[in-house]
Amino acid sequence: MPLDTSDAFLKFDNVKKSYDQKTLVVKDFSLDVAEGEFLTLLGPSGSGKSTVLMMLAGFEGVTSGDISIAGRSITRTAPYKRNIGMVFQNYALFPHMTIAENLAYPLQVRKMSRSDVTNRVDEYLSLVELRDFRSRYPGQLSGGQRQRVALARALIFEPSLILMDEPLGALDKKLREQMQYEITRLHEKLGFTVVYVTHDQTEALSMSTRIAVFNDGVVQQCAAPAELYERPSNSFVADFIGENNFINGRVNSITDGMAEVQLPEDGTILAFAASGLEAGGRCRVSVRPEKLFLPEEHHAHDNEVRVTHVTHYYVGDFIRYYFRLAGGGEINIKFLNDLAAPELKQGEQTSLVWTSKDCIAFPA
Amino acid sequence: MPDTALSAEDARFARSELRGRKLAAFLFVAPLLLFLLFTFAAPIATMLVRSFHHPTVAELIPETLASLEAWDGKGLPPDNARNVMAADMKRLANERLSGKLAEEINRLVPGTSSVVKSTARAMPRADDAEIATNGGALLTDADAAWGDAEIWKGIVKAGEVYTTQYFLTALDLEQGDDGAIQAREGAKIYVDLYTKTLKMALIITVLTLILGYPLAFYLANAPSATSNMLMVFVLLPFWTSLLVRTTSWIALLQTNGVVNSTLMGAGIIRSPIEMLYTQFSTIIAMTHILLPFMILPLFSVMKGIDPSFMRAAMSMGARPIPAFLRVYLPMTLPGLSAGALLVFIISVGYYITPALVGGTDGQMISNIIAFHMQQSNNWELAAALGSLLLAMILLLYWVYDRFVGAGNIKLG
Fold first, then answer.
1. CA-CA distances (angstroms) from residue A114 to A107, A109, B223?
2. In chain B, which end has fewer C-beta atoms inside a 10 angstrom radius, N or C?
């Protein structure tokens, strides 16, 4: 989604953060978020994504730089004046208050009249389908129900922005998928702006408008999910998002954005050239497991490498095959668990084929 | 549906397995159970019994008491009863037990100790036959007080095996001649002392709370290196003798102590303030000693409260202080009530610190109990006072349980 940065709703401007006055945890973070957008900060733990969220919520000071919402700087605003709703990983539902009291709390703080509070609480309880639970205590709810209450509580005072800090981290896989759907549904229905932090890429890919991939305090790439997956801008993103195979080689030449890569085991392949790639330099070619095929499958292809079958694992809905390249290095492929799944013996020689537009060469 | 019922044989095995587990569990706690039985349950039971069961006099002069049963309490007892008393007195004098009787009767009829003792000295000289016929007159000859009904009433009363008089005394009450319970004349020493003890315990509890709460909060939220180090300082008092800590307060607070000389040296006061041997010194020393009992339960509860609760409250627009009062404080209630109950109950029964730094002004109920056990030798009254203290604490606990709920207590 192209963004007009001049009227960005939420704006990070060269934000830096240091905890120990020596090293930066967040380095030069700049990002614009449009109103109604679902932005995910994705990255391994310790990459600085949670720190960004804490600075946005006001629980951590900003070392330098500026954060603004709707054109107004909030860098020096107290957390309770920012009007930002937040959903925490542990839900942070007040255990001594009932569900209804939990939801009413932000409204009471805003001195809303008693009847308005009751109506609004009812409205949001029905929104998350928990009307029958209004007089229960958080301890009496299941994980998924608590998460829905936490969500409703963050939304009920109609904040300008919702922050979610790994909100689904404590749920099991099935519930997580349900809640992903629930959050997406509410986001589409109410149209609020979300900044979402997670280390789970499936979650990020399926829910977000845009994803900012963090590593080492720096945003590696910020793009829509499909672009991030199909066109990663560097090898960290290629490796971090989804699964990827990497083939080492040397760049022979670059023409029209396509690099011809010389492989150590003889033979060349064609790949998109990532920025920074130079002819004559070493490179890593990334190709996703689902884009590789065996020659017998008769897929259109213009790249081919010779490989030896090492082993395969039965996963369930698919089977994962491991191959070794003649010049060293491993490649894995996923085959659907159907009749087309090949039967290969250990040590069997074969070829793998793919099209050049499905692989990218990054400088190594 | 699968058959989940046990067969007869399975049930037998299951029962014997359960029995084995129960036996093992019992054997694990048996030594402690025995120890507690002998050192805790038994002494408390004896104390409770002693406060109303008092057979001493009944064992000393059983025959006299038996013959006095016929007496209606008006005028002097019948002759035969007085004769039997004289015979008992002679026997006691010979057995050298008259002092004990004197002490017991003196407690009920003040000033009769010397009457009993001098009579006991006179009796052995008298002839058995004369005592049997004219014992009453011999008694009156030995001391005129035997001609007065008061001393005889005292003997009857002292002879009661089961008595409420110690409890009445402990509550500053007494039983009048007509048997009605009335307030005892003179100062209400024990009730006043109970009130003072409760008041002091309350002040100490509030002080430890005021001092302990912020510290526990800081410790619970500090980085673990800092909090561990500071925790050592909180626990340090546990590693020093109670006596050392209390006497150091004497060194600090006495007339020429550290505090006074510092204040005088700084020119703030002209003459030393009397701080030692007052309620003030008792309260301040006990607050210091009991502080860890408040901090530890508070700390352990606060440690379990995630910072995200306060953050959540603030993200919803609550200012820090209202958020603290509405969100954080209620969550610390289990630790707060545990600490308060612990400090209050310990300080109600505290003995050594008030004894050392309290003087007369700072005495608590435990000091008077100790006094009756060690100096006035009135174990029955001490037992009654102790039983009342126990009852009072149980009552407070019941009240606490009603309003806060004992299940809310969290000690660690």
1. 9, 12, 41
2. N
CA distance to partner chain A, nearest, from residue B318 (Å):
6
Backbone angles phi, psi at B72, to 5 degrees: -90, 0
**Which of A:18-57 have CB within 8 Å of B?**
57
Q: Do B316 and A157 touch (CB under 8 A)?
A: yes
- CA geometry: angle at A31 spanning A27 and A33, to 5°? 150
Provide the CA B28 distance to its chain's centre, in angstroms.
32
Minimal-distance CA residue of chain B relative to A110:
B317
CB of B317 within 8 Å of a chain A CB? The answer is yes
Q: Which residues, listed in sequence order, are joined to residue A165 by a DSSP beta bridge?
A: A197
CB contact under 8 A, B309 and A153: no
Question: How many angstroms separate the Cα of B311 from the Cα of each of B221, B304, B335, B348?
Answer: 13, 15, 21, 39
Q: Nearest CA to A9 among A162, A114, A213?
A: A162
Tokens of B82: 């007085």
Q: Using an 8 Å Cβ cutoff, are B303 and B386 in contact?
A: no
- Put simply, whether B319 touches A (Cβ < 8 Å) is yes
Contact of B320 with chain A, judged by CB distance below 8 Å, is answered with: yes
Q: Look-up: residue for tokens 């629930």?
A: A182
Whole-structure pTM value: 0.79
Tell me whether A195 touches chain B (CB under 8 Å). Answer: no
Distance CA A324, CA B70 (A): 117
The Cα A232–Cα A221 span in angstroms is 8
The phi and psi torsions of A313 (rounded to 5 degrees) equal: -120, 140
Per-residue pLDDT of chain A in tens (364 residues, 90 and over written 9): 444 445 689 999 999 999 888 889 998 899 999 999 999 999 888 888 889 999 999 999 999 999 999 989 999 999 999 999 999 988 999 999 999 999 999 999 999 999 999 999 999 999 888 999 999 999 999 988 999 999 999 999 999 899 999 998 888 888 888 889 989 999 998 889 999 999 888 899 999 999 999 888 889 999 999 999 989 998 899 989 888 999 999 999 888 889 999 988 778 899 998 888 888 889 999 999 888 888 877 778 888 888 999 988 888 888 888 999 887 888 988 888 877 777 888 888 888 899 988 899 999 8
A331 Cβ contact partners less than 8 Å away, ≥ 6 residues apart: A245, A247, A292, A305, A307, A322, A323, A324, A325, A352
What chain A holds in terms of domains, given with CATH numbers, is 5-235 (3.40.50.300), 244-363 (2.40.50.100)
Laid out side by side, the sheet with A303-314 consists of A330-336, A318-325, A303-314, A349-354
B314 part of contact set with chain A, CB < 8 Å: yes
Closest by Cβ to B314, choosing from A80, A89, A110: A80
Shortest CA gap B306–chain A (Å): 8
CA A175 to chain B, closest CA, distance in angstroms equals 23
Q: Decide: A287 and A247 in contact? Cβ < 8 Å.
A: yes
B337 phi and psi angles, rounded to 5 deg: -70, -35
Give chain A's length.
364
Q: Is A118 on the interface with B (CB under 8 A)?
A: no
Distance CA A311, CA B94 (A): 109
Q: Nearest-CA neighbor of A233 among A255, A215, A254, A251?
A: A215
Whether A105 sits inside 8 A of B322 (CB atoms) is no
Measured CA to CA, the distance from residue B338 to residue B382 in angstroms comes to 29
Whether B311 and A157 lie within 8 Å, measured CB to CB: no
Cβ of residue A138 closer than 8 Å to a chain B Cβ: no
ipTM score of the complex?
0.82
Question: Is A175 in contact with A143 (CB distance < 8 Å)?
Answer: yes
Kindly report the nearest CA distance between residue B301 and chain A, in angstroms. Answer: 14
Listed in sequence order, the residues at least 6 apart from B301 whose beta carbon sits closer than 8 Å to its beta carbon are B331, B332, B334, B335, B336, B338, B410
